[in-house]
Amino acid sequence: MLHITDTDLHASRLAYADVTAALAAAFADLATGHAAIHPRQRSACGEVRLATMGALWPRRRLAAVKSYPTVDGQFGFALVVFDLAANRPIALIEGTELTRLRTASMTAMVAARMARADSRVLALFGCGQQGRAQAEALLERFVLEEVRVVDPNPDIGWCERLQARSGARVRVVGAEAAVRDADLVVTATRSSTPVFDGRWLADDAFVAAIGTSTPAGRELDDETLARASRVVVEWRPQCIAEAGELVQWTRGRDLDKVVDLAQLFAGEVPWRALPGAAVGPTVFKSVGVGLADLAAASAAMALLAPQPAREAA
């Protein structure tokens, strides 16, 4: 059985574009019934928690289950991939690097379809491992001129390296200065309370909230959700129950404007607002779903697996 470690995956330099392409294929298949999501299950014993999530992708002859305990607030991820044709496990993938790649690639995939193509300014809340990945993935999709970082303990070295590598001006600012007139706003924090005031958002801003996946936490306030022309989620059945932003949304709650990727890929709802539609920011709320992990794993296996394993996958 193929074993891919975080070190292997990091060294492979798997491209965000390759993961994004796999994600698009997987969710297009979800829209037509050729893939299915196994929702997250959580258990707890004292202060320790265990979660599992997964997916079936018969069109690619693949299935996967990701498991991760939470100990002292830290996660430990592992993904088992199955070959459905042979009905056997074919890969064990250490999941921290895979989760980083798939989450950032998901934001890039959705933003490329929903944000303004000429977006130039990114407001980034949190420059930890996931925040850095979000910026890198979006810089591959957009010609950004400025990245505004909001973080109580910013990684100045990373900011300087990102500026040198991308050509975009990277600066550390306060929340309001970051959000005002920003084209793209990404929140990659573990905050349990909103990190900015939704009144600061531009009418045509694209907002991606990816930092929390529990009903008790939220990075966006009611104002952001009330102003949103639409709220996009990965998979409605799971996100409605897990996303703290949606669970805690109290003022002007309108779940009718919550749409998921299956609806968008099926063409039930257009990716971009039609002329005459309500004006307001577009919000993408991500909690992480098993199909995204499986799609990212398929891209990793295509790059790292020996030839016979690639053919099986």
How would you sum up this structure, described in words?
With about 325 residues, the protein is α/β, with parallel strands linked by helices. It folds into 2 domains: about 1-100 and about 290-310, ornithine cyclodeaminase, domain 1; about 115-285, Rossmann fold (3-Layer(aba) Sandwich). About 35% of the residues lie in helices and about 25% in strands. Helix 2 (about 15-30) packs across helix 11. The two termini are about 10 Å apart.
Q: Mind describing the biggest β-sheet?
A: 8 strands, parallel
- Mean pLDDT value: 94
- Total strands: 15
Q: Say which CATH homologous superfamily of the largest domain is assigned.
A: NAD(P)-binding Rossmann-like Domain
Q: Output the structural class.
A: alpha/beta
Overall CATH class of the largest domain: Alpha Beta
Give the N-terminus to C-terminus distance in angstroms. 12 Å
Report the sheet-strand fraction.
25-35%
* Succession of helices and strands: EHHEEEEEEHEHEHEHEEHEHHEHEHH
Give the strand order of the largest sheet, numbering strands 1, 2, ... along the chain: 10-9-8-11-12-15-13-14
What is the number of helices? 12
The CATH architecture term of the largest domain is 3-Layer(aba) Sandwich
> Roughly how much helix do the residues carry, as a percent range?
25-40%
Radius of gyration computed on alpha carbons: 19 Å
Number of domains in the coordinates?
A: 2
**And the CATH topology of the largest domain?**
Rossmann fold
Oligomer: single chain
Low-pLDDT parts are: 308-313
The global form is globular
